[in-house]
Design a protein that fits this description.
By secondary structure, the protein is mainly α. The chain is 41% helix and 0% strand. It is built from two helices and no strands.
Amino acid sequence: MATAPISFARGAPAPDLIPADELADCAHEVARRDGARVFAYGPGGGYAPLREWIAERHGVPAGP
């Protein structure tokens, strides 16, 4: 039985689809509001405010 190969190629969106100015504004706001701690290693679950925002936006629990 033949099997299909698994591709590990990187997928990258076209640069013109990336809202660089908006992402920069968001990063600046978070750094201004929360200071240097946002650049330090954090919990394994990731940055809690971002997890909570994503969960709220999608109507799911944020998890532990």
